[in-house]
Amino acid sequence: MTLxxxxxxxxxxxxxxxxxxxxxFTQPAWSPTANRWVATIVPGFVxxxxxxYRATVEEQRxxxxxxxxxxxxxxxFFSDSIFAQPNVTDATRTVDLPLYxxxxxxxxxxxxxxxxxxxxxxxxFFVNLGAARAPQQSAGDAFNDGDALQNGILGASTxxxxxxxxxxxxxxxxxxxxxxxxSEVTLEPGIATGVSNVTQxxxxxxxxxxxxxxxxxxxxxxxxxxxxxxxxxxxxxxEPDFDELLISTVYLLxxxxxxxxxxxxxxxxxxxxxxxxxxxxxxxxxxRILPTDPGLPSLPPLAAGAAQLVINFLTASINDMxxxxxxxxxxxxxxxxxxxxxxxxxxATFAALATAxxxxxxxxxxKNLAAQIAADQAAKRAAQLDPDFPxxxxxxxxxxLNPAA
Amino acid sequence: MNxxxxxxxxxxxxxxxxxxxxxxxxxxxxxxxxxxxxxxxGGQTFQHPWRPALSSGGVTFALGTVASLAGVGxxxxxxxxxxxxxxxxxxxxxxxxxxxxxxxxxxxDGVSWAALEIKPxxxxxxLTKDSTAEIIHTATVVSHEPNVGxxxxxxxxxxxxxxxxxxxxxxxxxxxxxxxxxAGGGAPRHLFL
Lengths: 405, 193
Fold this sequence. Notes:
The complex is a heterodimer. Chain A is of the alpha+beta class. Chain A contains six helices and 19 strands. Chain A starts with a strand and ends in a 23-residue tail after the last helix. In chain A, 31% of the residues are buried. Helix content of chain B is 0%, strand content 39%. Chain B contains no helices and 14 strands. Chains A and B meet through strand 2, strand 3, strand 15 and helix 6 of A and strand 1, strand 9, strand 11, strand 12 and strand 13 of B. Strand 2 of chain A pairs antiparallel with strand 1 of chain B, so a sheet runs across the interface.
């Protein structure tokens, strides 16, 4: 920061942060107006869109953002007559704020470490700074009971180490709605043949129209598309109608010797672990028919915009039926994938698309230009990112290139 | 001390639309004409392919290339300037060509895109020396032509009929692949890796 004196008066200027803020860069801050921790996220993109954060007008006003007016259009959000909702008050009226408008996102923290959930791992980094992992609990110990924390039962049973620092965490993740696979299985015993006749009907369910590409905060629970844990014969099955990816985790580290269960305030120190560094592409596989054996698939006419696939198969064993149905679910899953467009690579190195040449200055103008371009590309490939940082990208799913596999 | 992956954050005031944040380009000027507070939009960046920059009447880009998996080498896209297609790095390779922006293209949210439009060889799906690779200004990056793929390069934010800010979407050179539909029909898919 510099202070300059001139004939016209004093000028104070602060230069921009020298550090490049990558997409999805998360910046926590204490909001004295909202009396809580909030965060802003540098806008990242999924395909061509930047996610929104859905908030109420009242919540954003408390956080210091009078979001009644869209700064781009100069008009009220949803001021068009088709959005007219005369009975809705500011307390409940929601606005979809794109990340490029820098909305302040209030954070809800979970406790980890000594007074937190023992199943939530504490990074060694924070243990080195004074946090402690949760002590081993015995059977019947009211460890996760919030009342127990408030009443000091935990503290009485397990004395905290000296100069203990408490730890809290809050995740941000991007939520991409998508089509979901549904399955319905009917089981009919075969009278004449003595074997069971199983009919599995696959369908495609659409997400709710109000569900859009957005950012959530809280505790992220990744979904693993593992169909091994379900019994498709026991009832209808429906995939999640969204894909999600962790953006970052904000940690708050307390001053030493605070009472267990304390709520974070301005005296706590924020740290951020990022998981995303680049903009993303997203796609989901096309709905297609996999050959089944035994049995013949058939594709009935589309109804109401939803594809339906009926697969009949005969089998003598209930275990075979279950596994067959699981295989069909796994093979037809519509789970999408995120990737970082890095020219075919999957890290932050620039793709080798051209052979570097020396810049020419001969009479052939076209060759000179081609050489200049190649040299520029080589320089970019060799350029060091600022700062030196492991900005890894999401790998491209090669399965897209061979959909029949 | 290397604190990766937990960089300690600078103390920052909460986001405010009235007072700019310190440390991210705040400028407070007090002189005979009065007081003014301003800030630069965002932090610094680096010279990456496709890096956009707003100019007086349009957007220019740092040189970026696209190639298909088995096509010819990298292709430098072109930009239409005064009705004529010129390489994005300019006719002389030094002064970048400017993509003209029309305010009428922006949608009702005050947003438009600069997009790379690709027309591969219709048979092979690869990019050849005759393939089209052009940067266009559009309100939608979804192509309804089966053999045309689009990839958003930058988002342009508008206010009052003027371009306010441009946000980069792509930071690397691109590889393109066209996937033909399998069973059940449908349109080809255009992916940028």
